[in-house]
Amino acid sequence: MIEGSHKLTGEVSISGAKNAAVAILPATILAGSTCTIKNLPMVKDVTYLRDMLIQMGGKIHILDNDKIRIDTSGIAAHNIDLELAKKMRASYYFLGALLGRFKKAEVPFPGGCDIGVRPIDLHIKGLEALGAKIKISHGLIKAKTDGLKGARIYLDVVSVGATINIMLAACTAKGTTTIENAAKEPYIVDTANFLNALGANIKGAGTDVIKIKGVESLGGCEYSVIPDQVEAGTYMIATAATRGDVLIKNIIPTHLDAVSAKLREMGVEITEYEDSVRVKAPSRTKAVNIKTMPYPGFPTDMQQPMSVLLSVSEGTGIVTESIFESRFKYFEELKKMGAKIKIEGRVAVIEGVPKLTGAPVYATDLRAGAAMVVAGLTAEGKTTISNVSYIDRGYERLEEKLINLGSRIRRIEEK
Ligand code: UD1
Questions:
Q1: What is the pTM of this model?
Q2: Within 10 A of 216 (CB to CB), how many other CB atoms are there?
Q3: Boundaries of CATH 3.65.10.10 in the chain?
Q4: CATH architecture of 2-15+227-409
Q5: Mutate to test the pocket of ligand 1, among 93, 134, 157 (most ligand atoms within 8 A of CB)
Q6: pLDDT of the residue at 109
Q7: How many whole angstroms from 392 Cα to the centroid of ligand 1?
Q8: Given the CA of residue 187, which atom of ligand 1 is nearest to it?
Q9: Annotation: CATH topology of 18-224
Q10: In DSSP terms, which residues pair with 154 in a beta bridge?
């Protein structure tokens, strides 16, 4: 429950990147020894993966709030807990990691947010090119191989998940794997850096061609996960939407270039420091157009919070969602708060209103849930958001961080 219309002010520290953490945890299987992971966000998706690793025979010690030690030497299983795996998208990374270590893997079709069809054909195509035989039946993906061999793989669509899954499987394949039209998101670079710290030989992560020279085996390491650019971007937008002034700390400012550029265009003052950014909002932001694109373009994960800001900005903004076909469902919720939005396929026309008003709304998915929080923070009156477990999948200590910034938010039990 949020009592809105309070400016966000002060400082907030950003947690580790969920989308990097959910790739790095399954990747520890490839180490077959002990890894210490720091700056790990304790969000639900991370705890699901941790539980899956324990069930498979991994030993996990929690060393600190954001630091764990994982020993995967005792893992013998090539399959994962089906019920847990279905709760999240990133369980697909077990496919590449288990194939790489055990030459076989059994993984259910991934769950996660309902924001479009979300096929995994490119993951399958890539792993098959490396020599895996894959059968899909009854919602289960069964993969096995006599030995993976390096290959040249062109991804028809830029895919974060497929790029990482192929990298995982290719680390110990014989020969060199080349991924062309690879995704360039910071999560890719972070996962590649982690794998290299285990002893892999990956070059080109962060560009559209990645080369992986297979090595005999991998070992343990100590590694710190990069900051979460989506969490940081959400606080930047929330600051702008509440006309606030916040220093957002523990970030890599260049990862936020697309969001910062748009906010500047809207009249927000952004000052970048080495590992932080100060966001100072004007009395009212100006509307802009946004089109979601793979990194370094404007991120689809930021489309939802940004649309909330557009709905209270001066003028009319056009939002084009080019990555996922059904990432506009939350607009029905936003309209309950007074937003003026017209949807035409993957394009939304948002006519800014002076203010939103609080209402009972529903989180339709993870980032839409975060968008509802931004809406509640800027709205006049009380907003109750149900289904907040979605938000817990990706935002660490959300209420605590927002309360420290001066907002009035609390978790209440649903009656
Ligand atoms: C990841 C992120 C998610 C983000 C998205 C795009 C994780 C756990 N999730 O999701 O937060 O919104 O990247 O930045 O890291 N596609 C295919 N075939 C495939 C795979 C993907 O056609 O085999 C399509 C998808 O339908 C989509 C596009 O490629 O249109 C991009 O998807 P992808 O980058 O794979 O997204 P995810 O890895 O699922």
A1: 0.96
A2: 7
A3: 2-15+227-409, 18-224
A4: Alpha-beta prism (3.65)
A5: 157
A6: 82
A7: 20
A8: 15
A9: UDP-n-acetylglucosamine1-carboxyvinyl-transferase; Chain (3.65.10)
A10: 180
